[in-house]
Amino acid sequence: MRDNVLIVGMLLFYSVLSLSQGCFSEEANSHDNISASADFPEADAVVLKSEGNMRISDYEAEFSVHKKIKILTKKGERFAAVTVSFNPHIQVIGIKGTTVKQDGTIVRLEEKNIFESSLFTDYVLFSEDKYKLFVLPEVGTGCIVEYSYTLKINSLAFWPGWSFQDEVPVLHSSYKLTVPPDLEFRYYLRNDKQNKVEFSQRANEENQYLWVAKNLPAVSGEEYLPPFDDLAITLSFVPVHFRISGPSSTIQTWNDVANWYYGLIANRCQASEEAKIVTQNLCKGKDSEKDKTAAVFNWVQENIRYVAVDVGISGYQPHFASETFNYRYGDCKDMSNLLVAMLRHAGIEAHAALVRTRNTGELIEDFPSPRQFNHVMVCAVLDSEYVWLDATDDLCNFGEIPEADQGLKVLVVKTNRGELLQTPITPAEKNSLHRMWRINLREDGSLTGDLQIEATGHIAKAFRGTLKDRVPEKTKAWLTDYLKIIFREAATTQFSISNLSDNILPLQIECHFIGTPGLTQIGKLLLIPNKLLGGVKSIPALTKDERKYPVRLKFNSLSIDHVILNLPPLYQVDYLPEDLEFPHSSAHFSCVYRTEGAKIEVEKKLSFEKTDIPLSEYKALKDFYRKIAEEDSKHIVLKKMQRR
User: Fold this and answer.
1) In the Cβ-directed half-sphere of 31, how many Cα atoms lie within 13 Å?
2) pTM of this prediction?
3) What angle do CA 318, 161, 2 make, to 5 degrees?
4) Fewer Cβ close by (within 10 Å): the C or N end of the chain?
5) Residues 6+ apart with CB under 8 A from 451
6) Residue 419 CA to chain centroid, in angstroms?
7) Taking CA 629 as the corner, what is the angle to CA 623 and CA 632, rounded to the nearest 5 degrees?
8) Of 536, 529, 527, whose CA–CA distance to 590 is shortest?
9) Which of 515-531 are b and which e, b meaning 16 or more Cβ less than 10 Å from the residue's Cβ?
């Protein structure tokens, strides 16, 4: 891997390179004639050209983007819709676009078809966060779309990075940078394992740098992928000195990043008188720091509505804690700021923690930059131990954090310093699904049964997210669909749900059902597919024999199916599969069969104990899943005896 960090601050004299500017061209070139079937049979589109041009003067910049894309399929038409976000620190100007149809006709984007809207129309605190949307005209399979726009950036704190790759193949991608000779900055080139990116520079009255890559494959096409930024070749920048407002800031270490963010929040992290009263009432009668922290956390989680705005889109500075308290909504940094203010008023040590969430890629530890973070949570210190709090997820209990926050290096912002700490990972047994099946098999092949589900952790959270706003009839229909995953025909007749709104206790579902499982009758033998007895449905569908990328699962988990099958009259067990157990470095599966009189008991356990599986373990993982599928494909054989 070629991951580079470079400090640039002096004149460097190299051979002069001709740095071309991206511009529209109405002349065809050889790439314009590529076809889906012949050249890129699996692609919906191909990026013919992707150019970024960043020009910096003083502490401001203009960043121009130019893209040219050939549409190969109907699905590829999504590339004709472009959204560009902006805010008071970033303006969007000079939007241009054309569509070149298959017959050579050129259709230009008209000004009236460029729309502007607020990202959050119902939230006054975010009224300045907006976007421009345009859809290139008369797009169809085989056409070429081309567009450009420029961002005027008033602070280098918002210096955009660049991705050389996309979800479709890219034939040419370049990033050109022009800076004053005295500007110091660092850059990081990530995931260029095969040295695809060529770098050149020249020094004159301005320093110019150019990164170019050609013929890059798509970053997609596989199930359970790690985040895009962990796979694609990307380029990130951070200026050594920048300012948003007021004096210049210096960023060279994580302490610098923490001190800079602390300066943004210090005078905004005070609880208002109203918030102090609420805090005091919440903590009244509670002696332990844990109970006080839980009470304040639960109040913020339940009373402040979360507005999903990534750090950087709405700037880095939260609103005053009093504003968030009064308006009763905020983004992650607003909610964290209010939570810290209220906890400190309760006498609890608490700090903001800057997070690069798990779904956006791994933190680059040797590249300190505020641009790496997209989220803020809270780190509280209770009895000398760190407790992590994320009130933005209303389905997470106190003491739990969302899967996107787990197993990460995060920057805890303390007074005058920062500290990189690791967030915990929920073990498999705390993300559990336990299903108890009691099934009565009838002689005609139909069945009745009762199902009890108990779920904890992130599995319970997924159930709650699905069921919490459903009316009873829709919940009943959902349960029927859930049963049909296993049984050919099924219907829920009665059900009840416990602890749907109580995140502390396990979620419990009970239902009575009837169904037709689809059994096979051969003379006096009745074949019952093993998958009907707690068939494993939570394993990833890994369809490819070979992979280019590692496997990424959402979270560790444990699933247990306990089945009691009562046999119909005159039937007895003729064949029962053998018990088995097989492990994998990241998972474990076992299956135990028992028979007693006129009933069969089966217990299946499947645990995932690691979420990131490297390529070197992929074949073993696929073989592990194959063995589970083979076990599910087996049959239990019943034999009908003659009446005496």
Assistant:
1) 16
2) 0.88
3) 130
4) C
5) 435, 436, 437, 438, 483, 509, 510, 511, 513
6) 25
7) 150
8) 536
9) bebebeeeeeebebbbb
User: What's the pLDDT tens digit per position in 157-204?
Assistant: 899 999 999 999 999 999 999 999 999 999 999 999 999 999 999 988
Question: Residue 130 CA to chain centroid, in angstroms?
Answer: 23
Residue entry with tokens 């607020």: 118
Q: Which residue has the tokens 């009130």?
A: 391
> What is the count of structural domains for the chain?
3
Are residues 458 and 415 part of one domain? no
Tokens of 470: 């459903």
Neighbours of 281 (CB within 10 A): 11
**Cα–Cα dist 233/165, whole Å:** 6
Name the pairing type of β-strands 144-153 and 90-100. Answer: antiparallel
Identify the residue whose tokens are 């891997």.
Answer: 1
Instruction: Using CB atoms within 10 Å of the CB of residue 168, give its burial: 0 to 12 exposed, 13 to 18 middle, 19+ buried.
Output: buried
**Domain enclosing residue 277, as ranges:** 251-422
- Verify that 460 and 561 share a domain, yes or no: yes
**Identity of the residue numbered 89:** H
Non-local (6+) Cβ contacts of 10 within 8 A are none
The reply to whether 266 and 407 lie within a common domain is yes
Place of tokens 């490819």: 544
Give me the residue label for tokens 């940094």. Answer: 333
In a shared domain, residues 407 and 547 = no
Name 25's Cβ contacts closer than 8 Å, sequence gap at least 6: none
Polymer length of the chain: 644
In angstroms, the CA 359 to CA 356 distance is 8
Question: How many CA atoms are closer than 13 Å to the CA of 99, on its beta-carbon side?
Answer: 21
533 and 394 share one domain: no
The 3-state DSSP class for residue 19 equals coil
Digit-coded pLDDT (tens) for 444-464: 889 999 999 999 999 999 999
CA distances to 6, 75, 231, 270 from 40, rounded to whole Å, are: 36, 14, 20, 57
- What mean pLDDT is reported for the chain? 89
The amino acid present at 345, given as its one-letter code, is H
Locus of tokens 């005053």: 320
Give the distance from CA 538 to its chain's centroid: 19
Q: Where on the phi/psi map is residue 537: left (φ > 0), alpha (ψ -120 to 50), or beta?
A: alpha
Least confident of 21-35, 179-193, 254-268: 21-35
> Which is it for the CA torsion 243, 249, 254, 259, positive or negative?
negative
Pairwise CA distance, residues 452 & 438, whole Å: 9
Q: With contact defined as beta carbons under 8 Å apart, do 510 and 452 qualify?
A: yes
Q: Specify whether 447 is located in the same domain as 485.
A: yes
- The CA R_g of the chain, rounded to the nearest whole Å, is 29
Contact 560, 603 (CB under 8 A): yes
User: What is the torsional sign of CA 20, 25, 31, 36?
Assistant: positive
**151 shares its domain with 269:** no
Give a yes or no: residue 345 inside a domain: yes
Helix (H) or strand (E) holding 282: helix 273-283
Which two tokens mark 190? 């990530």
Per-residue CA distances from 422 to 93, 400, 406 (Å): 41, 15, 8
Q: Which residue has the higher pLDDT, 156 or 2?
A: 156
**One-character DSSP codes across 587-635:** EEEEEEEEEETTEEEEEEEEEE--SEE-GGGHHHHHHHHHHHHHHHH-E
